[in-house]
Design goal:
0% strand
Length: 120
């Protein structure tokens, strides 16, 4: 907020730097604040989810490549609603799995119902 988005003259990319030394310094300081905050938040997330991180790392050591299904099986569904496009992709990719039921912990019930109906 301290420095608004600024950009060079795109019509003439070879023009000199349009910013004063003070403006460049303010931009650098704001960028440093943003990077430092992001770094701190990242460390907090990794430390707070260390158990899940270790599980994923161990699975990667075993399989080398993992996908969405592997992650959900390992640490559970996302604790928040995902991007609609991605959710649609996952629903279509995983026939027979009710993503909403999975998020509520009812996957096993859904699988059992399908087996009883002869679908699995």
């Amino acid at each position: 907020d301290a420095v608004a988005l600024l950009r060079k003259d795109e019509a003439n990319p070879y023009a000199g730097n349009p910013y004063s030394d003070a403006t460049r310094q303010a931009m650098d300081e704001q960028a440093k604040v943003m990077v430092d905050e992001s770094y701190t938040r990242t460390l907090e997330l990794l430390e707070g989810k260390k158990e899940e991180l270790v599980k994923v790392a161990q699975l990667l050591m075993e399989k080398e490549t993992i996908n969405h299904d592997d992650i959900v099986d390992l640490i559970g569904a996302r604790p928040f609603e995902g991007d609609k496009t991605y959710e649609d992709y996952i629903k279509n990719k995983r026939p027979g799995v009710d993503v909403e039921a999975e998020e509520e912990g009812g996957v096993e019930e859904k699988k059992e119902e399908e087996e009883e109906e002869g679908g699995g």
